[in-house]
Specification:
Layout (H helix, E strand, L loop, with lengths): L18 H31 L4 H17 L8 H19 L2 H18 L4 H7 L1 H11 L11
Helix pairs in contact: 1-2, 2-3, 3-4, 4-6, 5-6
Length: 151
């Protein structure tokens, strides 16, 4: 049964690359669709605590990611290098198109691209390596649980 493509191309067919690249691209397209659908809610939540542009900015950033996916594969030799290049493109795109949150989400993708280059599975990096968390702490000025003020 054929599925009709969404506005952001979530149902786009495989481009004949490796399963890893197809999975990364499908995940990014799905994330773009989910963020687009949730943009009004994200913006409303941000209006209560900030400047009220988070949903709009994230939607713009992920639409730019989908445009980069549609433009073709980055230059790279081999599956891991291609995956790392794709994640670097995602990171740089978020940094350049999204406001403050773009730095956080963009830099996490840059850390992930380094992980892939080093042959580390991203889920392993998330669960066992503090570098990803350190990236968020450094860029987003987040506090660890130990540094949070008592309530």
């Amino acid at each position: 049964m054929a599925m009709s493509p969404s506005r952001l191309g979530v149902d786009a067919p495989s481009r004949g690359t490796t399963p890893m690249i197809d999975m990364i691209d499908a995940w990014l397209r799905l994330a773009a669709t989910r963020i687009h659908d949730a943009a009004p809610t994200l913006t409303a939540l941000d209006q209560a605590i900030g400047d009220g542009d988070h949903g709009t900015n994230m939607d713009r950033g992920f639409a730019a990611i989908v445009a980069a996916l549609d433009a073709g594969l980055p230059e790279a030799d081999g599956e891991l290098a291609l995956a790392a290049a794709r994640l670097r493109t995602v990171g740089r795109t978020l940094i350049s198109t999204v406001g403050g949150a773009g730095l956080n989400f963009g830099n996490v993708n840059l850390v992930f691209s380094d992980s892939v280059t080093d042959g580390i599975v991203i889920s392993q990096r998330l669960h066992t390596d503090s570098q990803s968390g350190d990236c968020l702490v450094q860029v987003g000025r987040a506090l660890s649980r130990d540094e949070l003020p008592a309530r």
